[in-house]
Design goal:
The complex is a heterotrimer of chains A (335), B (748) and C (168). Chain A is of the alpha+beta class and 335 residues long. Chain A contains twelve helices and eleven strands. In chain A, the strands form three sheets. Chain A has a five-stranded antiparallel β-sheet. Chain A has a three-stranded parallel β-sheet with strand order 1-3-2, with no helix packed on it. Chain B has three domains: 156 residues, Aldehyde oxidase/xanthine dehydrogenase, molybdopterin binding domain (Aldehyde Oxidoreductase, domain 4), CATH 3.30.365; 184 residues, Aldehyde oxidase/xanthine dehydrogenase, a/b hammerhead (Aldehyde Oxidoreductase, domain 3, Alpha-Beta Complex), CATH 3.90.1170.50; 344 residues, Aldehyde oxidase/xanthine dehydrogenase, molybdopterin binding domain (Aldehyde Oxidoreductase, domain 4, 2-Layer Sandwich), CATH 3.30.365. Chain C has 168 residues and is α+β, with helices and mostly antiparallel strands. Chain C has two domains: 76 residues, Beta-grasp domain (Ubiquitin-like (UB roll)), CATH 3.10.20; 76 residues, [2Fe-2S]-binding domain (DNA polymerase, domain 1, Orthogonal Bundle), CATH 1.10.150. In chain C, 36% of the residues lie in helices and 15% in strands. Chain C is built from five helices and five strands. Chain B: This is Aerobic-type carbon monoxide dehydrogenase large subunit CoxL/CutL.
Chain lengths: 335, 748, 168
Amino acid sequence: MRQFSYSRPTALSDAWDDFEHARYLAGGTNLVDLMKSDVERPNHVIDLNSLPLNKVEELPDGRLRLGALVTNADTAAHPLVTERYPLLASAILAGASPQIRNRATNGGNLNQRTRCHYFYDPDMACNKRSPGTGCSAKGGRNRIMAILGTSEACIATFPSDMCVALAALNATVTLAGSQGERSVAFRDYHRLPGDQPWQDNILLPGEIVTSIDLPALSFGPHYTYLKIRDRLSFAFAIVSVAVGLQMESDVIQKAHIALGGVGTKPWCVPEAEALLEGKTPSLSLFRDTAECLLRGAVTDRDNAAKLRLAPRVIMRALSQAADGTPQSQTYKSIS
Amino acid sequence: MTVISTTIGQSVSRIDGFAKVTGQARYAAEPHPSGMLYGVIVNSPIARGRIETIREEAARAVPGVVEIMTHLNRPHTALFEKSYVDGLGVPGSPYRPLHDGEIRFNGQPVAVVFAETFEAAREAAMLMEVDYERWPHNADFEVALHQKYMPEKPRSNYVPPKSRGKAAEAYALSPIKVEGHYHLAPEHHNPMEMHATTVIVEDDGKFTVWDKTQGPQAVQAYLTSALSLSKDQVRVRNPYVGGAFGSGLRAQHNVFLAALAAKMLKRSVRVSLTRQQMFTHVFRPEAIMDIALGATPDGTLQSMIVEGVTDTSRFEHNMENLVVWGLINYKCPNATADYKVVPRDTYTSSDMRAPGAATGVNLFEMAIDEMAYACSMDPLTFRLHNYSDIDAMHDMPLTSKALREAMLQGAERFGWQNRPMTPGKMRDGKELIGWGMATGIWDAMFSPTSARARLTADGRLHIATAASDIGTGTYTILAQTASEAFNIPLDQIDIELGDSTLPQCPTEGGSWTAASAGAAVWLACQSLREKLFKTLGKNSNISAWLTEGLRHNTVVLQDGFLKNTDGDEAFEMSLRDALSLTGQTELEVEETAKPGLRGTISQMRKARFTHSAVFCEVRVDEELGIVRVTRLVNAVAAGRIMNPKTAASQVRGAMVMATGMALHEESLMDERVGRFMNHNFSEYHIPAHADIPDMDVLFVNEEDTEVSPLGIKGVGEIGMCGTAAAIANAIFHATGRRHYNLPIVPGD
Amino acid sequence: MTDLSVARPCRLEINGKSYVADLPPCVTLLDLLRERLDLTGTKKGCDHGQCGACTVLVDGKRVKSCLIFAVSIPDAKVITIEGLGSEGHLHPMQQAFIDRDAFQCGYCTPGQIMSAIALLEEGHTQSREEIREFMSGNLCRCGAYNGIIDAIEQVIAQQQKNRTGEAA
């Protein structure tokens, strides 16, 4: 880790001053790790933990606002989250470990970097870490890499579980910076790598996430977060699916689906969601949905298994949601 | 010798438990000598080539940096290559850290940065700039297969496969044939404690080296030889070792570099590897096994043909006993095997828990399962039908083999009789349930070992030997042995291990420590008792009962007292009083346990193995292929069990590692650069709590007076052997699909 | 230009004792404990939050001390393995680990114990499966997992017995 100076502002406006080569620190569960790996090399670290962004609040219009500095653990355990957004709680509990969730924050979760082996290893070429050096994941050991949203420059997977649920939920992200405050749809927050894979998201220099707002919606029991990984806990997703279905009698009124583990960002396909709407659940419908979600998938040397697995995981998740039997994150048998 | 157990065989809690649960146990990176420097290693990003230039300016500018050691400025080391050969007996040219500017493998240390703080050393290491001339390399296993060879001089412990009958002809004539091309991914040991060394430069200039090793005396010998130091200049200590599983068998480069730096800087230093750097040294070799089995329809094996290869480096010829296990363990008139190694431009692969057998037994037992099915025979019945009571490869009798009992008792515990033969018949919701089994076999070895027993003025018994407790429970079972041999309560015993200055003990590994060090401690305690009695007998000022008793051999040691068994029970004396009567402040003996004439003859005439039968239940999601291991039963026949509690933990621990072998662990080589890319605990998956069900370990009664002086066989490796196969076989039973590649991961 | 080497005030309470010093901001809580305070009971198993060996309690919550800059948790109360129990008075979890042979090499053990103590506070202990899931952030290469779950259940049983005793 390279030396850096450290500051801890207590007001929002102080945070984005003097941002050149600085990094924001929240829970630190990814940043500290990356600095030790010499992937992140800030010369200044701005600790956000004294900012007043640590509340979960109900908004007057029925939405729920998750402060950027609320920890993942507190978010997952918050009564309003477990009551209204069990999909989000489930996705959070599917990720990392209790110790990590006790430190990791909601804002930090959005801004975590990929777990690509090559990104993490400064001896290897990586456009995301060192623009212009090339992508050594392509043609390399890329079993964990993305099959959707990739580019010639980058095939790194976005690793979050929480964000998959947030994408499914159509959350909104509130940002603040020297240009003022703005809101963006969560689904637009993360970027595809394109030819600029070093930009993971639409944050402007110095801008920070202040909150994540969840729309007022309910799926009853018709949701699930189904995560497939290499061991039964404490591993990143190979494929994960967040589904929430608004159902009336046997008909899907509105569908919310996002994929994790397979995309360069939380993967949503509005056409796939539209396919389900107004229909009664059936395996063939789910098959079509999966096909639509995975359209355009490209595999590389080692990750074809993801494309074999993904349709089955999607179909199972849709069945779980339709049946109202969400996946437990504790009991590992998959209903 | 006959041993009547009072302490041996009891489930005693670990005597080192208090130190470990309170954080007081100190591991290699934990002493804090004053003025110590921190060393951080800089690794080569290329697999082959030559260092052109090293630019140190930026690194040296970091405040606190004291020195940067490279091949250009390192102090003198031994001239001859043979001085760098360690005790493991791997033929070839040993790797010599910082010897010259040539790069032989990716991750090779090219510099070590020393600074006053860890943080400064870490930063400076990041600022090092090294230019390389790149040479072509090959790290691709498939490509290397074309260069497979048999080393001219095999590794010292290599057991050459021995053919019998006419395997090829018999195979051709067999009505039932199965053939499989099996593969095991390379694995890394990944003990929780990373390899580290703290060299304390004492006031007299001598080095006390705290190293993570399984053999303090081997490291001491290596350092003195390689660094041209005198023998009394280096003392190596490893009282606590945070796991090793074979990674501490060889002196790793951290200890060489730390000692070299201490020599150069004349200051105490610490060199710790990072988890990433743990992937720059030893690993379990990648392996391929081609197994062809022929049988008659009644399930009688007619032919076994096994061909196997494992990988090694370009500079050393690491070898495993990979292909022999099936030939030893099964009765079959015709059998042949062949083994070769393939060279890659990587560091040398090395022994990892049950080397050779973990791979060879598991893959072979997967083939046996397939053959049982080809013969429409229950896999347990098939194994019993082809059971060998001898070492069938060497046509030698065995000191003991209670594998049949293990199979039957394990089957009963598991409920195997309720198993439907046809795969895919058991289901619960969306999960298919499968039951599989396999057998395990591992050497039961004994090596000459010395131990010291000392009775001190406070009446305590001190036992010392240069063994290492790497989590194996050695402290505890040696205390139990001493307690029984000297008939003294456990809490009056101190055990000292992990120090090169203690009596000679071979490097911990291969499950031989319990048998070997145990025998030495037993002998030393017997000898100490005799010495105590003899010394007392020379004293004319002792009580009449004692004089009489000693003369008539009626005095015994009991619960830490001398007692007279002949007559009035009131005659007894504490050890403290007894010692003071000898007029000495302490009594000490050192003894060496050797096989002896009888043992040597036995070793020539009889083979010796530990055996096991493993039963497994898996649940496999029918559509997603997700495997959950839900039940494991392991019945182990390992001679005398010193401590069922710690022994069962040993077996369970290996079963966890074998679960990793079956389902999780794979070091992913990027052959373009020769580096294992998933070099962290996030992407190299060892089993977590959630992956491991309750495991039932039972020990089958197996009295073996011949295998080692105390009848011990050792239990450190056996849990690896068979468990991965039982899982794979259970997956077949659940799904009807065979897998030939381990690990079996989601999507396979 | 900020002076990069400038140390920052660090104020912590570690095992009940106040710790005040100026520290470079890059010093992690784990390295502070191990290298500067000689509290080596907290272990470094990966230094990247992937193994759990460095688990300590910060303000009552279990966290991975390798991922925390020491200066970034002002006035926090830190409890490490050295802050539990004492000779003859082990914490029940420590005793249970010995009783149930819940370790072999002992290196992951302090982290497992700290994690287990926090787990009981969190209450994720309804079944062995739940304990397993919520202990999965603590890897054990020796494979002492069965013993660890047994130890945790032993403490739960003791607590229940104590509670029943109090109620009666």
